[in-house]
Amino acid sequence: MPQSLVIDTDTASDDAVALLMAARDPRSQIRAVTIVAGNVPLAQGVRNAKVTLELAGAADVPVWAGCPAPLIRELGTAQNVHGSDGMSGTPLPEPRMATQDGHAVLALLDLARDEPGRHTLVTLGPLTNIAAAITIDPEFLTRFAHTYLMLGTSDGNGNVTAIAEYNAWADPEAAQIVLQAPGEKTMVGWDISRKYAVIDPDEDRRLRDLGRLGQFAADINRDVHVFAVEETGLAGYDLPDPIAMAIAIDPGMIVHAEDLHLQVATDQTTRGHTYADRRTPPRPVNTRVVTSVDGQIFLDALRAAVTL
């Protein structure tokens, strides 16, 4: 039976590729998509998610709009990375799907309460929606089979500051709430993307040659390519959300992970820094942190998702 996924996302370019992978992988099915403001403002994220789902043949997936800003901070988008529309300015059709009535946080709470243990929760953006749900239902995460977080870094190297990954930086208070909440969690940090999910020009050409979905995946990441090469020193654009999604669908690709007590810094100087407390006596484990994966499994899954 396919794994049922509930996906919380701030849909921009790499999130869209992750949605594409989830929608087209026969091992998974998407139960719901909830949108949070992050890489782009909320309305743009909703539009991008619906466009992607329609292109992937998943127009029946319900989409809810959620929180338009972090819990206590102003929204700081990543439109400088993904383009003003989050999709590198790629011409895309207007979506025909309707957005579901009601707030995403309430939809998440309903799904968790009414269908406990049936879904895997995958978060691809700032954790505002999830933290809001936890403040209402502290046991919220325990009602999912597992939660996979695209969040932070396991090696201390950031992409929005020297030490912070964007999702943790955008709403660190929300991230701290989620990490401390009960429930089985796995963190897939930006370091995993940087090491195992870089799409260099040769791989970009391979994706484009696979058809219209490969062309879509490559086109919407054009602006990310510029940022990744010029700002983070990579050989091409990297795909943090797609590799997190691939791990959620196939945890067997994990080579090494550590069970740690994680924290997120909320002060201004180190905002969004994810770090493990390794002091003795040991603090209680709250998160499994992925530190290495089989990158070939990810590339194979990506290519399969965009092959028509």
UniProtKB/TrEMBL annotation:
Q: Which residues form the Inosine/uridine-preferring nucleoside hydrolase domain?
A: 5-299
Asked if the keyword Transport belongs to this entry, the reply reads: no
Short name of any one Pfam family annotated for the protein: IU_nuc_hydro
Q: What is the designated name of this protein?
A: Nucleoside hydrolase
Keywords assigned by UniProt? Glycosidase, Hydrolase
Q: Which PROSITE patterns match?
A: IUNH
Q: Which Gene3D superfamilies match?
A: Ribonucleoside hydrolase-like
> Which species is this UniProt entry from?
Nonomuraea antimicrobica
Kindly indicate whether the keyword Glycoprotein belongs to this entry: no
> Can you provide one Gene Ontology molecular function annotated for this UniProt record?
hydrolase activity
